Amino acid sequence: MMNELFILSALMAQPQSGYQLRQSMTAALGHHRKISFGVIYPLFERLAQGGFITLVQVDDDKKTKLAAITPAGVARFKALMAEPIPDCAHTADLYQIKLIAMQYLPVTQQQALLKAYITEQDTTILHTQQFMDRLQQSPSTDHWYVLQKQRLRLKQAQVAKKWAQDFQRNLKEVDRFDN
User: Where are the alpha helices (DSSP H) in the chain?
Assistant: First the structure.
């Protein structure tokens, strides 16, 4: 789901090659997150067979294909954006992809996504604080190091929550002026 959502969301803006999509993912999710060409091109073929994208050979380069989203692809993108984010190893990446692409959704769905993201941060804050409390009940050198990492996780979740709350408020202001 993650790679399909990312590709469709990136194509919402403009047609792109596999190389451009790989660069986009790295820019969006961080320099350590790369999608391999061995994932991109088979996914291109599957999306094209499903009618979600078209693939056009670039004239000057026989190897390069440009992918463009179709109306069916836009519908698939919106369906993926509406799906709840599962609690899995890719939860954070899925939120990042959805947050990057949410401008293509109605404001009510954008607000719902931000609310879900805030709830995710609240859960992280709660679980991290509970874990830290347990560690502090039996202090040791090992626990001190683990606590330092947990403090980082706690701060990151608090900052992410504040960012999302600010974004929600700003979105309400923008929506008020657009209507």
Answer: 2-13, 18-29, 37-49, 71-82, 91-101, 107-136, 141-178
Q: Quick one: tokens of 50? A: 């499903």
Residues β-bridged to residue 19: none
Q: Find the mean pLDDT for residues 76-83.
A: 96
What pLDDT score does 63 carry?
77
Q: Answer whether 128's CB lies under 8 Å from 150's CB.
A: yes
7, 43 Cβ separation under 8 angstroms: yes
Instruction: Put the strands of the sheet holding 65-69 in their side by side order.
Output: 16-17, 65-69, 53-57
Report pLDDT for 142.
86
- In 3D space, the residue among 41, 49, 46 whose CA is nearest the CA of residue 16 turns out to be 41
- Output 46 or 38, whichever has higher pLDDT: 46
Pair 39, 6: CB distance under 8 Å:
no
